[in-house]
UniProtKB/TrEMBL annotation:
<dbReference type="Pfam" id="PF01928">
    <property type="entry name" value="CYTH"/>
</dbReference>
<feature type="active site" description="Proton acceptor">
    <location>
        <position position="28"/>
    </location>
</feature>
<feature type="domain" description="CYTH">
    <location>
        <begin position="1"/>
        <end position="148"/>
    </location>
</feature>
<protein>
    <submittedName>
        <fullName>CYTH domain-containing protein</fullName>
    </submittedName>
</protein>
<dbReference type="InterPro" id="IPR012042">
    <property type="entry name" value="NeuTTM/CthTTM-like"/>
</dbReference>
<dbReference type="InterPro" id="IPR033469">
    <property type="entry name" value="CYTH-like_dom_sf"/>
</dbReference>
<dbReference type="InterPro" id="IPR023577">
    <property type="entry name" value="CYTH_domain"/>
</dbReference>
Length: 148
C-alpha cells in the first residue's frame, strides 16, 4: 500500500544540490488501471497502481533494460523525465521526494511525501516551502500528465 501526499512547489528549497538525486524516465502502458514502466537511475521497473488518490495499492516488478526499452516503445502519451531529490524532513523520519521535471513539463516541480500509515498522513504539516496541495485533485498524477 502506498500512502502519499503531493504538493506543487513554487520555489526550490535552499541547498537543493546537497541532497542525493537521480534521473527518472517513465511512461504509461495504461492509465486505468495504472501500468507504468520506469528507469530509475540504473534500475528498471514495471509498476501497477490501484485506484485512489492518497492511498492505493502499488506493486513493482524488476525489468531488464532490454525489457524496459521494449515496453517503453509501446507506451501511450508522453514520456516523463525528471530528476528526483530525496530530502529528509528533520525530526519526522519522513523524506520528501522532490521531482524537478524536464522536457514537455520543464519548470514543473512536485513534492511527494510517503507515509507509514493513514493517520500519519492525515496529521502531516508540510514545510513552509511547500506550495498548494494537489493530492486529492489528481490533476498532477504522473499518469494524467502522460496524457496531456
Amino acid at each position: 500500500m502506498e500512502i502519499e501526499r503531493k504538493y506543487l512547489i513554487d520555489r526550490l528549497p535552499d541547498g537543493l544540490d546537497a541532497w542525493p538525486s537521480r534521473p527518472i524516465e517513465q511512461a504509461y502502458l495504461c492509465t486505468d488501471p495504472v501500468v507504468r514502466v520506469r528507469q530509475d537511475g540504473d534500475s528498471f521497473y514495471l509498476t501497477y497502481k490501484g485506484r485512489g488518490l492518497m492511498a492505493r495499492e502499488e506493486y513493482n516488478l524488476p525489468l531488464t533494460e532490454e525489457a524496459y526499452r521494449h515496453l517503453l516503445a509501446k507506451a501511450d502519451g508522453n514520456i516523463l523525465t525528471k530528476v528526483r531529490y530525496r530530502i529528509p524532513l528533520e525530526g519526522t523520519g519522513l523524506t520528501v521526494e522532490l521531482d524537478v521535471f524536464s522536457g514537455k513539463f520543464d519548470g514543473l516541480v512536485l513534492a511527494e511525501v510517503e507515509f507509514p500509515d493513514q493517520e500519519t498522513a492525515e496529521s502531516f504539516t508540510p514545510p513552509e516551502w511547500f506550495g498548494r496541495e494537489v493530492t486529492f485533485t489528481g490533476e498532477y498524477q504522473n499518469s494524467r500528465l502522460s496524457q496531456l
